[in-house]
Design goal:
Keywords: Membrane, Repeat, Transmembrane, Transmembrane helix. Belongs to the PPR family. P subfamily. InterPro entries: PPR_rpt (IPR002885), TPR-like_helical_dom_sf (IPR011990). This is Pentacotripeptide-repeat region of PRORP domain-containing protein. By secondary structure, the protein is mainly alpha-helical. 69% of the residues lie in helices and 0% in strands. Among the domains are: 83 residues; 99 residues, no CATH class. The chain is built from 47 helices and no strands. Helix 14 packs antiparallel against helix 15, helix 27 runs antiparallel to helix 28 and helix 41 crosses helix 43. The longest helix has 23 residues.
Length: 863
């Protein structure tokens, strides 16, 4: 008994794997040596995006889903071999490496009562998909009394290990094989040479071959061909010729030899020599097979000589060359890989009808996958039906193709049913099939099922691609599946999968909106531990969430962190954090701490101080704002105009009117007061409901020949109307006209609103007409205020009234609401007419959007 080490790539490590009693026979084993497409198709096909439902596919979509599922279920189950399934179920049940686990497996296999033979071992190894299970079976068989492993079974396990790139295990087999005292010495070196050759250790294999020749022994035919094929694979073409001569001298030359030599010529791109070689064989009267022609056909296609390759196939078919199926298969695969799907389909159908040619499942799979990639679902359906009708045993690639086909064809219910039956078929979906199924289920709104499929895929060792992960994440966020979102994030992080910034932003945004900001913060912490820099938007969402949760301390911490990560907070964000801090315990301490941290990170400048003055002002903590303002001076930074405006606003927002006036007066002594400071003072006083003082300051502003902003007039009109000082309102409007400004929609709407409330406004207007000059504008305004203060005339049309308003000021949505309100009081029929017309206009604008037109700004304001 020996111990073999098993490398990382097996699903579990073997700490105890004995080598077995071995009887070397001279059985001939035909090795696949031709150059064909790799059998690992599922890893070579690019991700195929889902497509919409297609029309009826030869009746499939007309059938009941259950009938389609039943048909495919029976077909996929036809591949099952109950005995082999039972063997691998036993092998997969015990994952332990201890002696107890091995004894349990041995006992279970012994109870099956298998008749051990070389053919059975080869069948089991060919059926298995798990390298570890194949090794366990190989181990168990070799330890059974009366059975001896042959070179054929050794080569079979070598090939399995080679495909899995477990070369070290092959070398272990070869090295430990030497130490088996009970192994017959006949053919011993031949097996070693084959083992090293398959493992790619050609130098050692050739050394052993030389030792054999020195000792007077030689390789047999099988070993010679294994060595020759390995030399070609490793491009050792000088030695190839030497070994080929030895094969000919010993009389071992056969079509296997010819196939390997053809592959050698083709790998060296000696295509003319390869063609001459095969024609020479044909002219000598030898019966040739498609295995010899296949390498040349493949090489010509790779060299873009498809026409010549096709002519060669037809020429040798007409010459009576036997068993051309392999050449046909290679020709079809090359056409498919080159994107010549129509030619491949035409060739397949012609050979099928004329010669009864039916390709193997691998060729069908290759063609089906490429057709799926091109969204040619009708042809995919035809080929799947052909596979079923020809009773060709499907494999995992076929199952995956069928799943993707049903997803792309919009038959996700059938795909899901087949997926749920996968254990009956002993088949595992590929990562691509999982991606398709998840994407399609999300598209059909079956998010719960999509998430279950995701969990299953992870247990199978797959994790969805970025696109699939994004689609599922979007669906979970859209439906508010918060717990599933957290699970998905944890799964992703466990797999070291880092989704895009936008995905994490969606996760965190969704959690924050649902008041689960702590969970969002947990995800953010995981990202930090992975050195992943969150996006600026992610920080905004988290800070906003903690502000809403009254956790200003964490919000402040995140504010500092986002700056350290290279993001620049806005004044609005600073303001929100400071307001939240000011609502916590010890606000002064929290406020000063944040300010000091900011000052320690940056060179002090006006902007930093202004952010804090602004925040304190909005938090209605003018004393903190003033402390920052004075701190600027102590730091040698002279407050700029923005600093003065923000400090003034902080007093006004807190309705500290006397402090605001004193500060305003101090400013007048330090600098010349400009429009911005006057505008700030007037607007702030109006919002503080001190229109009397605001009026006085506006008069001072006019005396200083400064032009107030439109907002000053708007806020003062609103404030004066609220205080029913209508005479002053019209004096103000007169001043507005004098400075060259027009009545805005805001002012006009305020006048309409108060005209509806009281006729005192109209009376004040009549009084103002005696004082101010009568203009066309004043006459129009007179008509408008009268209409809203009194009843609208019975014969007055709605459109006329709209026209009157438009001559005074631009209409907006608020104006139409006022108009509807007035009409509802006096003329309900006109109100309904206006409402219907407005609603119809909205529909027209929506139609414009659907047709790709962008309405102008003046159009949008009415909808």
């Amino acid at each position: 008994m020996l111990t073999l080490r098993c490398v990382r790539k097996t699903r579990a490590s073997l700490s105890y794997l004995p080598i077995f009693n071995t009887n070397i026979t001279t059985s001939f084993f035909f090795i696949s040596i031709t150059t064909t497409t790799s059998s690992s198709e599922s890893s070579t096909y690019p991700f195929l995006p889902p497509t919409p439902t297609i029309p009826t596919l030869h009746g499939i979509s007309e059938l009941q889903s259950k009938d389609v599922v039943l048909s495919f279920r029976e077909w996929f189950k036809s591949r099952n071999n109950p005995v082999l399934d039972q063997i691998f179920e036993i092998l997969g049940a015990q994952n332990g490496n201890d002696e107890l686990s091995r004894q349990s497996t041995d006992l279970a296999l012994s109870r099956l009562g298998l008749r051990l033979s070389e053919a059975l071992v080869l069948e089991v190894l060919n059926y298995g998909k798990d390298v570890l299970s194949c090794l366990k079976f190989f181990d168990w068989v070799g330890r059974q009394h009366g059975f001896y492993h042959t070179r054929v079974t050794f080569i079979a396990i070598f090939k399995i290990l080679s495909r899995a790139k477990l070369m070290s295990l092959i070398l272990d087999f070869s090295e430990k094989y030497v130490k088996q005292r009970y192994i017959p010495r006949v053919g011993f070196y031949s097996t070693l040479v084959m083992g090293y050759a398959v493992a790619g250790k050609l130098e050692i294999a050739l050394q052993l071959f030389g030792r054999m020749r020195f000792q007077g022994t030689d390789l047999d035919g099988l070993a010679y061909h294994v060595l020759l094929n390995a030399l070609v694979e490793e491009n050792c073409f000088d030695v190839v010729q030497i070994i080929a001569k030895q094969i000919a001298i010993h009389g071992f030359e056969s079509e296997v030899t010819h196939s390997i030599l053809m592959k050698s010529f083709c790998k060296q791109k000696q295509l003319d020599l390869a063609e001459s070689f095969i024609r020479g064989l044909a002219s000598s009267g030898q019966r040739l097979s498609g295995h010899i022609l296949s390498p040349l056909v493949d090489a010509l296609c790779k060299n873009n000589q498809f026409e010549k390759a096709g002519k060669l196939v037809e020429e040798f078919r007409e010459s009576g060359m036997v068993h051309l199926e392999h050449a046909y298969s290679v020709w079809i695969s090359d056409l498919v890989q080159a994107g010549k799907l129509d030619a491949a389909l035409e060739f397949l159908q012609s050979k099928k009808s004329m010669e009864g040619y039916v390709p193997d499942v691998f060729r069908y799979n290759t063609l089906i996958w490429r057709l799926l990639r091109e969204n040619r679902l009708e042809e995919v359906c035809d080929l799947l039906m052909e596979l079923k009708e020809n009773q060709i045993c499907p494999d995992e690639v076929t199952l995956n193709a069928a799943l993707c086909f049903f997803c792309k064809a919009g038959m996700v219910d059938i795909a899901l049913e087949l997926y749920n039956l996968r254990t009956e078929f002993s088949l595992s979906p590929s990562s691509m099939a999982y991606n398709y199924l998840i994407n399609t289920l999300c598209g059909h709104g079956s998010v719960e099922e999509a998430y279950c499929v995701l969990n299953n895929s992870i247990h199978q060792g797959y994790f969805p691609g970025r696109k699939t992960f994004s689609i599922l994440a979007d669906a979970l966020c859209r439906e508010g599946r918060l717990d599933k979102i957290m699970e998905l994030v944890i799964l992703a992080l466990e797999k070291n999968f880092i989704p895009s910034d936008s995905i994490y932003d969606k996760f965190i945004s969704t959690l924050c909106r649902a008041r689960r900001v702590e969970d969002g913060y947990l995800i953010h912490g995981q990202l930090n531990r992975l050195d992943k820099v969150a996006s600026k938007n992610t920080y905004f969402n988290l800070i906003s969430g903690f502000n809403k949760s009254s956790r200003g301390d964490i919000a402040a911490r995140l504010l500092i962190e986002m700056q350290e990560k290279g993001h620049s907070p806005t004044r609005k964000l600073f303001r929100a954090v400071i307001c939240c801090l000011c609502d916590m315990e010890n606000p002064e301490k929290q406020f000063i701490k944040l300010l000091e941290m900011q000052l320690s990170r940056h060179e002090p400048d006006c902007q930093i101080y202004n952010f804090f003055i602004d925040g304190a002002g909005h938090a209605k903590r003018p004393e903190l704002a003033r402390e920052v303002y004075e701190m600027m001076g102590r730091s040698g930074i002279f407050p700029n105009l923005s600093s003065d405006i923000l400090m003034l606003q902080s007093y006004l927002k807190s309705e500290k009117i006397s402090d605001a006036l004193n500060f305003f007066d101090d400013l007048s002594k330090r600098r010349k007061l400009g429009r911005k400071l006057y505008n700030t003072m007037i607007v702030g006083l109006c919002k503080a409901k001190r229109s009397d003082i605001a009026w006085e300051i506006l008069q001072k502003m006019r005396e200083n020949e400064l032009k107030p902003s439109l907002e000053c007039y708007e806020q003062l009109v609103k404030s004066l109307c609220s205080n029913k000082k209508y005479d002053m309102v019209f004096n103000l409007i007169d001043d507005l006209m004098k400075v060259g400004r027009h009545v805005s929609s805001f002012i006009g709407n305020v006048l309409l609103f108060h005209s509806l409330k009281t006729r005192e406004l109209y009376k004040a207007w009549l009084r103002s007409r005696d004082v101010h000059n009568v203009t066309s504008f004043s006459l129009t305004l007179d008509e408008l205020i009268f209409a809203f203060s009194h009843h609208i005339r019975a014969n007055q049309d709605i459109e006329d009234l709209e026209e009157v308003i438009e001559r005074c000021f631009p209409l907006d949505i608020y104006t139409y609401n006022m108009l509807l309100r007035k009409l509802s009081i006096s003329r309900m029929d006109h109100a309904c007419e206006l409402f219907n017309r407005t609603f119809e206009a909205k529909r027209w604008v929506e139609e414009m959007f659907r047709k790709g037109f962008d309405p102008m700004k003046c159009t949008k304001q009415f909808i």
